[in-house]
Fold this sequence. Notes:
By secondary structure, the protein is of the alpha/beta class. The chain has two domains: 3-118 and 357-372, Enolase-like, domain 1 (2-Layer Sandwich); 122-352, TIM Barrel, CATH 3.20.20. It has helices at residues 55-70, 78-89, 97-116, 121-124, 145-157, 172-186, 202-212, 229-236, 252-260, 277-289, 300-309, 355-359, and strands spanning 3-20, 24-38, 43-50, 132-137, 162-166, 191-195, 220-221, 243-245, 266-267, 293-294, 316-319, 330-332, 336-337, 340-341, 352-353, 374-375. Strands 4, 5, 6, 7, 8, 9, 10, 11, 13 and 14 form a ten-stranded mixed beta sheet that branches. Helix 7 (202-212) links the parallel strand 6 (191-195) and strand 7. Bound molecules: magnesium ion (MG). Magnesium ion (MG) binds next to loops.
Amino acid sequence: MRIASITCETYRLPLREAWISAKYKITHHELVLTRVETECGLTGTGWCTTIGVGGLAIATLVNGYMAPILIGEEPRDTERLWEFMWQDLHFAGPAGTTTQAIATIDIALWDIKAKAAKMPLWRLLGGARSSVGAYASAVNLHLTQDELVAQVERQLSEGYDVFKIKIGRNEPLEDLERLRAVRKAIGPSRTLLIDSNQRWRAADAVRHVTLLEEVRPGWIEEPCLSDDVAGHARLRNSIKTPVAVGEQLCNRFEFWAYVRENAADILQPNAGKVGGITEWMKIAHLAQFANLTVAPHNSLELSAHLVCAIPNGYLVENIEGGNLADFGIQIEGPRIVNARVVPGDRPGHGVIFDEDALAAHRLDPTAAIMRESSAHGGF
Ligand SMILES: [Mg+2]
């Protein structure tokens, strides 16, 4: 089998409502979608998303630099081609836009490999289980306390038992009051996760998380800047709450730094960020060696396959408004039913995009992006 063509497009998708956390205000996602065709007619799709920044740069890397050197290669040699791509782009940077570009290609190659094997991805990659639970997540730091509780009560009625709440208000006692209200709404036995989107320095994080421990958080996610491994290690040694990190990390070496420094309890790799499925599986095995849990960030449709492939996976994340179906661009693919995702038996990842719906959001590669999204100062 040989690769015949690789093309990549960027689409700018408006969120139904802006996402506001302690770090960002986000009005759009960008979907960067790579299509790989083979000489025998099998095709694969792979993608990553951005929070509205950098999608065109990723597509330029794929179309301008990676596609020409991959034409004619055997698409099922995922290990060889991943190493080749990563080494080739290493000078441009071993993490970030480069690993996102690699991800879109690698995921498409795995889609082709699974279709050729006539297996769904989750089974080809290991087949640890055939379905996975989801936790309710929302970017809700801007909601009033009443709105927040109403949101959680709706999620409760949809069957969720695990809830993630954004924290990181300027006044920590406000976070505590909001979390007390949510804990009261969900009762003592359900799981309450908290996420401060890198808001604090380590010393502040120790004080703030200690204050919030009365609501018994299941984890504190991204308490400090993701580059600050030592800060996370210091925090982890100072609090009872488990520490979750990974949505900003881009390759196995960045995850290994956290594992080596005993700085995390839960690893949250996103396949679209870490260079695709080839690298994601290595990070999952790294977690397994360290006896840690993997709870992938976002990308529900792919994450469901990946968690079903491994024995040390937790739940997948359902961020309200952030799934392919929420944007109206998915015809077929893993979806949530009663807080559970069944990736199914369709060969490959099973996602079929709605090309007509996508066409309306295609970005001109030479466009200047007028964006409202920005770094955000918190509340
Ligand atoms: Mg997060």
